[in-house]
Amino acid sequence: MTVLIAITLTSVLVGAGVVVFTRDPARQAVVLGVYGLLLTVFFMVLQAPDVALSQLAVGTAVTPLMVLLTVRKVTQSKAQKEKDR
């Protein structure tokens, strides 16, 4: 069990680094969703299914979706302002 925890913890650490070093906001939202999935697996390995379910709902689905919608809205707003000039 300790080896499995070490493997999942390492994947979570690598995933965190990938999220931090991703520059494009849209790509970062997708990577954040994958990172949420890695955390979900980590919590399941630690035998915390309630935390894993919460992470799956919020960290994997809702937060990246809200970031993507915000990026889309900001991009459309900037394009509209440029068009109006």
TrEMBL record:
Keywords recorded for this protein, A-Z: Cell membrane, Membrane, Transmembrane, Transmembrane helix
Name of this chain's protein: Na(+)/H(+) antiporter subunit B
InterPro entries per record: MrpA_C/MbhD, Nuo/plastoQ_OxRdtase_6_NuoJ
Location within or outside the cell: Cell membrane
All copies of domain MrpA C-terminal/MbhD, residue ranges: 12-74
Superkingdom in the source lineage: Bacteria
Topology class, membrane: Multi-pass membrane protein
A Pfam family hit: MbhD
TM region positions: 6-22, 29-46, 52-71
